[in-house]
From TrEMBL:
Organism phylogeny: Bacteria, Pseudomonadati, Pseudomonadota, Gammaproteobacteria, Alteromonadales
InterPro entries xref list: DUF3019 (IPR021559)
Keywords noted in UniProt: Signal
Protein name per its UniProtKB record: DUF3019 domain-containing protein
Domain of life of the organism encoding this protein: Bacteria
Native organism: Pseudoalteromonas luteoviolacea S4060-1
Keyword Signal: yes
Signal peptide: 1-25
Pfam families for the chain: DUF3019
Amino acid sequence: MNFKWSYALMVSACLVATKTSSVYAIPESKAALKVKPMICMVKSIGQICEMTIAIQWQTTTAQDVCLYQDTQKLKCWQGTQQAKAKLNISLEQDMTFSLKNARMETLAAQKVKVNAALSRKYRRKLKSDWSFF
């Protein structure tokens, strides 16, 4: 193998290694929070969305943390570094879920959006206002 190809192969391997390792790394905030699904569909705007969400979080050190839906406390864990949970929630509008420590400092947050299937904003007009016939 000539030098150009071996150098290119080595550089691409390094790039792939750094990309794959950063996927599982904990961000600089020292906590990671995943809420799935991130979008809830309702029939029309104003309806309440009820769904089960899967929560997964991880911190660099074991600590007491609580999960909040806006200002409402949903669930707490004591002396834990990571956890998974499933919760039933109700949303009327976009909502931010946050992981807070005992001092009420936000360690991580994620937003869940509420989208309407029959949104007037994106609704297509089926018939024109005028006609030749």
